[in-house]
């Protein structure tokens, strides 16, 4: 017996009593089913409420099945579904293949490759131009650097020169002043000279530095 | 709280969708070598900061890698699927120039993008209605010129089932 048909076998419940109790069912004799009038409906209780005591021994059996008919119907359905699945797979594969071919054709076309090569050539040219610009910049930088170095060296030289000149001038000035120094040799002569020419420091000056008043030396 | 980072506009969808560089399908990896300091790398830095989010948004399947302070001069390198490598020197260029250059050599042209858009549109019919995932409208009541949804505008009683049933019962 087919395993699916086992569901239809009645359990330990006395069936004839139940069959007699229910109204006219679609399959008389074997098992009670839901009559067309009464369909499952929740009604008063929720799904969480326990079933009532009157349903304690209730056995809900599925509708009865004719085994030969079932076999025949299953075989037919199997063949039908086999054919349909095969057709579907066939069509799917065809569509995918077409799409793939189209995509590849679009990518591998000669003009695309040509275009790509042209663009790459342009890119290389651009890189070459950039290289030239970079070399130009580097060269300018170098020149700038050299120029700056030269300038610095010149400035340094000039500074040294100016410094030396300064020092020279100071030395000369000192030499000049040295002529008026008082040495032990001309000490007495200078003292005599000072005593002979008394200088008068008693004068007043205004804001511009001109001498305004002189007091007579007493 | 919703604004993060120095230029949070870069995170907005509007900004991202304004990127116009869509790479050809042969480009797989993009590598950017740039320096974080230096006047010559300024354009590259701006490119990385402002334009790479747009590019990545438009090309989610392209891998983009950034390398900082590894070479004295900045450059971009693209790796195509046939093994070819494309070098782009970006020293002393502004970020706009860089994007234009990249778009020219490796981006899909406008015609191609439009063609693809048209192909995509052909797949779905705008007049059909159904689940939001596949159609523009879900119910017939949303279509202009059709009977409005009875949830908002009650149907005239001639179209209602209970009136028709009452009429039939009467007759």
Summarize the structure.
Chain A has helices spanning 15-21, 67-108, 110-179, 187-196, and strands spanning 203-205, 211-214.
Task: Write the SSE topology.
The complex is a heterodimer of chains A (218) and B (171).
Chain A: H1 15-21, H2 67-108, H3 110-179, H4 187-196, E1 203-205, E2 211-214
Antiparallel strand pairs in A: 1-2
Chain B: H1 13-17, E1 27-34, H2 42-58, E2 63-68, E3 75-80, E4 85-89, H3 95-106, H4 110-123, H5 161-170
Parallel strand pairs in B: 1-2
Antiparallel strand pairs in B: 1-3, 3-4
Helix pairs in contact in B: 2-3
- Largest sheet, spatial ordering of strands of chain A: 1-2
CATH architecture of the largest domain in chain B: 3-Layer(aba) Sandwich
Structural category of chain A: mainly alpha
User: Largest sheet of chain A at a glance?
Assistant: 2 strands, antiparallel
Please tally the β strands of chain A and state the result: 2
Average of per-residue pLDDT values of chain A: 85
| SSE order of chain A, one letter for each helix or strand | HHHHEE
What proportion of the residues of chain A is helical, as a percent range?
55-70%
CATH superfamily of the largest domain in chain B: Glutaredoxin
User: What does the overall shape of chain B look like?
Assistant: elongated
> Which stretches of chain B of 5+ consecutive residues score pLDDT under 50?
none
Question: Top keywords for this entry?
Answer:
heterodimer; A: 218 residues; mainly alpha; 4 helices; elongated; B: 171 residues; alpha+beta; Glutaredoxin; 2 domains; 5 helices; 4 strands
Explain how this protein is built:
- With 218 residues, chain A is mostly helical.
- Helix content of chain A is 59%, strand content 3%.
- Chain A has a two-stranded antiparallel sheet.
- In chain A, strand 1 and strand 2 form a beta hairpin.
- The relative contact order of chain A is 0.04.
- Chain B is of the alpha+beta class and 171 residues long.
- Chain B has two domains: 103 residues, Glutaredoxin (3-Layer(aba) Sandwich), CATH 3.40.30; 48 residues, no CATH class.
- Chain B has a four-stranded mixed β-sheet with strand order 2-1-3-4, with helices on one face.
- In chain B, strand 1, helix 2 and strand 2 form a beta-alpha-beta unit.
- The mean pLDDT of chain B is 93.
- At the A-B interface, helix 3 of A face strand 4 and helix 3 of B.
């Amino acid at each position: 017996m087919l395993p699916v048909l086992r569901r239809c076998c009645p359990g330990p419940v006395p069936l004839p009593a139940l069959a007699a109790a229910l109204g006219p069912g679609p399959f008389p004799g074997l098992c009670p089913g839901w009559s067309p009038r009464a369909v499952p409906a929740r009604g008063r209780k929720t799904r969480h409420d326990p079933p009532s005591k009157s349903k304690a021994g209730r056995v809900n059996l599925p509708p009865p099945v004719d085994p030969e008919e079932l076999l025949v119907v299953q075989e037919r359905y199997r063949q039908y579904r086999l054919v349909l699945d095969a057709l579907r797979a066939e069509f799917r594969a065809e569509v995918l293949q077409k799409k793939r071919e189209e995509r590849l054709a679009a990518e591998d076309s000669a003009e695309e490759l040509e275009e790509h090569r042209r663009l790459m050539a342009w890119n290389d040219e651009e890189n070459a131009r950039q290289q030239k610009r970079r070399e130009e910049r580097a060269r300018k930088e170098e020149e700038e650097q050299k120029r700056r170095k030269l300038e610095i060296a010149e400035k340094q030289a000039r500074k040294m020169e100016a410094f030396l000149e300064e020092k020279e001038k100071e030395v000369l000035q000192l030499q000049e002043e040295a002529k008026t120094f008082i040495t032990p040799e001309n000490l007495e002569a200078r003292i005599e000279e000072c005593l002979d020419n008394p200088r008068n420091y008693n004068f007043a000056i205004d804001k511009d530095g001109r001498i305004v008043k002189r007091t007579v030396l007493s | 709280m919703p604004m993060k980072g120095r230029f949070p506009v870069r995170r907005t969808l509007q900004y991202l969708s304004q990127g116009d560089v869509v790479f050809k399908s042969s480009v797989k990896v993009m590598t950017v070598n740039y320096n974080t300091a230096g006047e010559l790398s300024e354009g590259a830095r701006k490119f990385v900061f402002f334009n790479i989010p747009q590019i990545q948004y438009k090309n989610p399947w392209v891998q983009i890698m950034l390398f900082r302070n590894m070479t004295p001069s900045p450059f971009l390198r693209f790796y195509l699927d046939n093994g070819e490598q494309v070098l782009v020197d970006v020293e002393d260029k502004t970020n706009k120039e860089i994007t234009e250059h990249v778009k020219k050599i490796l981006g899909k042209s406008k015609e191609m993008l439009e063609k693809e858009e048209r192909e995509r549109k052909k797949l779905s019919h705008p007049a059909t209605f159904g689940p939001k995932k596949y159609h523009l409208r879900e119910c017939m009541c949303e279509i202009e010129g059709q009977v409005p949804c009875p949830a908002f505008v009650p149907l005239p009683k001639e179209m209602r089932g209970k009136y028709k049933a009452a009429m039939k019962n009467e007759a």
